[in-house]
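In this section we walk through a basic example: taking a raw amino acid sequence and producing a predicted 3D structure, encoded as discrete structure tokens. The instruction is simple. Fold the sequence below.
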Amino acid sequence: MFLSNAHAIASTAPNALLVEIKGCDHWAQYEQPERFNQESIACLQEA
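The resulting token sequence is shown next.
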């Protein structure tokens, strides 16, 4: 997804959280698994 589209979607969704992981393309869970897991866990803990 293009970052501009992601920002547009996140800005219209109540309580949306957009996390940009620099240096990743499409597979953050494979390219930066530690950061992906950290952000995912933090999001789930907020729910």
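Looking at the output, two observations stand out. The two ends are 24 Å apart (CA to CA). The chain has a mean pLDDT of 92. In the next section we compare this with other chains.
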